[in-house]
Design a protein that fits this description.
Elements lengths: L4 H10 L5 H12 L4 H7 L5 H22 L1 H23 L4 H21 L1
Helix pairs in contact: 1-2, 1-4, 2-4, 3-4, 5-6
């Protein structure tokens, strides 16, 4: 998993399951892009090592939760299918070839069925 963007997603999904310190440190690191020193100051003057520890433990917990629950993986899958559906709809709107249009409608229906099953 790519560190950075995916931790932002994981924090949005699972953040409430972290300790307040871990959640706050990760939020400041990934959403506010603060340095370790800035985070330490915001958290009341704790040490930078304490911030590093909170971030590492929080990241580990987020990864464990994702491994168990898989919500971010499902979100990525559904997002990909929705994008593919939008592309197909865009192609269909400009296509007057009935055979191609019917094939695309079938593919679109299949993608939407997949999305429905995953929800």
């Amino acid at each position: 998993m790519e560190h950075g963007f995916d931790f932002v997603i994981l924090l949005d999904i699972y953040g409430e399951l972290l300790s307040k310190g871990q959640r706050d440190a990760l939020d400041m690191r990934y959403n506010e892009d603060l340095s370790l020193a800035e985070i330490a100051q915001e958290l009341g003057g704790v040490t930078r090592q304490s911030v590093v520890s909170s971030i590492k433990k929080g990241e580990q917990r987020l990864l464990e939760l994702e491994d168990c629950l898989g919500f971010a993986k499902r979100l990525r899958s559904l997002s990909g299918k929705l994008e593919a559906s939008k592309t197909i709809l865009s192609d269909i709107s400009g296509d007057y070839d009935k055979e191609k249009r019917d094939e695309r409608f079938a593919r679109l229906g299949s993608l939407l069925d997949d999305i429905g099953r995953e929800l």
